[in-house]
């Protein structure tokens, strides 16, 4: 027979306190180990040698130029272990969304014959992008035209709600720019993809709610983003620093920028 009732109450209280201390301790120590591994793994990844088409909708060309040049982020602005875990969790959600769509009757290409994501390069490899999927067939009831680009993003509840309320173009212009560019540059591989609206899927990471939106091809946006990319590449090759997006480091985008110190303290112009 078990007998956990014997012993003084004080001993039980002390044990509880000790358990809590141990629990806090192991949590901190274990997270440190997990984070140091995930950060080390990130550091081993090869740096990009191209301008990512998924980033071109960012409003500051100077920031994109820093990214393209692989300039290290300001001290203390590198991704933390937690941030890197958030990215990984997002990838898991996105993998799940592929299954959800396929089970709902979509034919979705996500990897080519070599097991790699579909994508494109242009400007002699200086601009590149990787797409989440190509829809080649959709349930008849949806009346979708194919082939169509599919992009998926997972986001926290507040961001997801804003996307549902305002729609992709207003709430997430970076993603809208990404989709326009991908539709344009994937046309060569999947004829007709730029004529058919893309399907954008947003996953609420807190509740697993899903939002889908059809995004018609925006020619002007694709052209503007493509011109912006060429401008960044040309300026970089000419060793010119592109202008800042703002007149003061207090601008809200600068406050969150990973290059704020370099941009406002180190560079002189
Ligand atoms: S600090 Fe502001 S202006 Fe400078 S690169 Fe970042 S976003 Fe652009």
Task: Walk me through what this model shows.
- The structure is a single chain.
- This protein is of the alpha/beta class and 269 residues long.
- The protein has two domains: 38 residues; 216 residues, Lambda Exonuclease, Chain A.
- A five-stranded mixed β-sheet has the order 2-5-6-7-8. The chain has a three-stranded mixed β-sheet with strand order 1-4-3.
- Strand 3 and strand 4 form a beta hairpin.
- Helix 2 crosses helix 7.
- It starts with 8 loop residues before the first helix and ends with a helix.
- It binds iron/sulfur cluster.
- The site of iron/sulfur cluster has 12 residues, from helix 2, helix 8 and helix 9.
Characteristic key phrases:
single chain; 269 residues; alpha/beta; Lambda Exonuclease, Chain A; 2 domains; 8 strands; binds iron/sulfur cluster
Overall mean pLDDT stands at: 92
Largest sheet report = 5 strands, mixed
Secondary-structure element series: HEHHEEEEEHHHEEHHH
Global morphology = globular
Helix content: 40-55%
Low-confidence stretches: none
Q: Which CATH architecture of the largest domain is right?
A: Alpha-Beta Complex
Could you please say which CATH topology of the largest domain applies here?
A: Lambda Exonuclease, Chain A
Q: Could you tell me the number of beta strands? A: 8
Number of helical runs? 9
Residue fraction in strands: 5-15%
The termini sit apart by: 79 Å
User: Compute the gyration radius: what is it?
Assistant: 24 Å
Q: State the name of the first-level CATH class of the largest domain.
A: Alpha Beta
């Amino acid at each position: 027979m078990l007998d956990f009732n014997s012993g003084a109450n004080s001993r039980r209280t002390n044990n509880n306190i000790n358990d809590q201390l141990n629990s806090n301790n192991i949590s901190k120590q274990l997270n440190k180990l997990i984070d140091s591994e995930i950060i080390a793994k990130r550091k081993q990844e090869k740096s990009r040698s191209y301008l990512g088409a998924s980033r071109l909708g960012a409003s500051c060309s100077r920031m994109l130029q820093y990214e393209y040049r692989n300039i290290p982020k300001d001290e203390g602005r590198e991704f933390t272990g937690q941030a890197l875990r958030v990215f990984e969790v997002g990838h898991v959600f996105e993998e799940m969304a592929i299954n959800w769509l396929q089970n709902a009757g979509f034919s979705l290409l996500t990897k080519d014959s070599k097991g790699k994501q579909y994508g494109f390069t242009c400007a002699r490899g200086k601009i590149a992008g990787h797409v989440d999927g190509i829809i080649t067939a959709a349930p008849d009831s949806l009346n979708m035209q194919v082939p169509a680009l599919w992009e998926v993003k997972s986001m926290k509840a507040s961001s997801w709600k804003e996307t549902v309320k305002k729609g992709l173009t207003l709430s997430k212009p970076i993603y809208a720019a990404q989709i326009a560019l991908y539709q344009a540059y994937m046309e060569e591989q999947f004829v007709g993809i730029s004529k058919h609206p893309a399907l954008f899927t947003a996953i609420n990471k807190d509740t697993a709610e899903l939002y889908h939106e059809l995004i018609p091809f925006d020619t002007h946006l694709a052209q503007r983003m493509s011109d912006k990319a060429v401008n960044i590449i040309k300026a970089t090759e000419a060793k010119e620093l592109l202008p800042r997006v703002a007149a003061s480091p207090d601008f809200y985008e600068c406050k969150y920028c990973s290059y704020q110190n370099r941009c406002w303290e180190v560079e002189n112009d």
